[in-house]
Design goal:
Shape: globular
Structural class: alpha/beta
CATH superfamily: Aldolase class I
Order of helices and strands: HHEEEHEHEEEHEHEHHEHEHHEH
Radius of gyration: 24 Å
Strand order of the largest sheet: 1-4-5-8-9-10-11-12
Helix content: 25-40%
Number of strands: 12
CATH architecture: Alpha-Beta Barrel
Length: 346
């Protein structure tokens, strides 16, 4: 009598007439194989560390952004040096002045807090890439990105062209302090062209411009405004930052204008809710592209991790990897130091 295979083996044994030849799992079997065929890379030197520099001595943790501090110049240099040790070779500076006024004069003061920080960073860490956020909102008493036109009780709009002159002046001051890259974030029309002209007129032909080309009027900026003390005292920024539901055409138009005016980098901000826009900008332009993993995105992960809801390490690396996969060449992220450490440990 011919023996029969057990029924379980009969049901699961592949048919010889139609062999299963495509097995994607073959390339996922070991960590080394997965690394060998990985399409998207994520490295510490692709991350940009934000630094909030204030006038007060020492440092103070930002309550809405656990693990991020306002720091004096000395602590900021120490934090940047630690980043360099981990492979993070770029920082972006945000200033919190002790005094503000209607024109944001602290932004373009030769002795402004970020100007002093940059000089010290370049003295102690000459290989570090120093990027300046170039805006007025942290320095104005009203929290907007330029001088205001007042109209009626509580109503105001930013004077675009008056703002351009002050932003260009700020960029030149930052270049004198040692900026490698100027990153204008004020969302004023003609801003990149005004900065390029001012830099060139003052001999800073080699100072690059990282344009916040595609910057949305996003709800994800809340913790940053706590950190930089830059919330508008009246109104909002919806008239000059982009409509979150504006679509692709507006994003591509803004990027195209900044390319024509002399931008060296383009940026999409925020990142996670706009990965489709990031991909579209990547497909249409060949300049280096930066994603800004903003404060609200950071805070959500931190709070969820502290509550035991998410695995912080896995979520951060997955999110940053998604930004790279969507087309970002570099990422500004408050997770930079943690992510760099995790990548080194992997």
């Amino acid at each position: 009598m011919t023996s029969r295979l057990p029924e379980s083996r009969q049901n699961h044994e592949p048919s010889t007439s139609s062999p299963l030849t495509e097995r994607p799992r073959r390339l996922r079997r070991t960590r080394a194989l997965r690394a060998l065929v990985r399409e998207t890379s994520l490295r510490p030197d692709q991350l940009i560390l934000p630094l909030f520099v204030h006038e007060s001595p020492g440092e103070a943790e930002i309550s809405s952004m656990p693990g991020v501090w306002r720091q004096d110049v000395t602590r900021a240099v120490e934090r940047a040096a630690h980043g360099q040790e981990l492979g993070v070779s770029s920082v972006v500076l945000f200033g919190i002045p002790s005094e503000k006024d209607e024109l944001g004069s602290g932004a373009y003061s030769e002795e402004g807090v970020v100007q002093r920080a940059a000089r010290e960073l370049k003295r102690q860490l000459p290989e570090l890439t120093v990027i300046f956020d170039t805006c007025l909102c942290e320095y104005t008493s009203h929290g907007h990105c330029g001088p205001l036109h007042l109209h009626g009780p509580g109503g105001a709009t930013v004077d675009n062209d008056a703002a351009l002159a002050l932003i260009a002046r700020t960029a030149v001051s930052q270049a004198r302090a040692g900026a490698d890259v100027i990153a204008p974030s004020a969302a004023m029309d003609g801003m990149v062209g005004a900065i390029r002209s001012a830099l060139d007129a003052n001999g800073f032909h080699d100072t690059a411009i990282m344009s916040y080309a595609v910057k949305y009027a996003s709800a994800f900026y809340g913790p940053f405004r706590d950190a930089a003390d830059s919330a508008p005292a009246m109104g909002d920024r919806a008239s000059y930052q982009m409509d979150p539901l504006g679509g692709y055409r507006e994003a591509l138009r803004e990027a195209r204008l900044d390319v024509a005016q002399g931008a060296d980098f383009l940026m999409v901000k925020p990142a996670l809710a706009y990965l489709d826009v990031l991909r579209s900008v990547r497909e249409h332009f060949d300049l280096p592209l930066v994603a800004y993993n903003v404060s609200g995105e950071y805070a959500m992960v931190k709070m969820a991790a502290r509550a035991g809801i998410l695995d912080e390490r896995r979520v951060v690396l997955e999110s940053l990897g998604g930004m790279r996969r969507a087309g970002a060449d570099a990422i500004i992220t408050y997770h930079a130091l943690d992510a760099a450490r995790w990548l080194r440990e992997a």
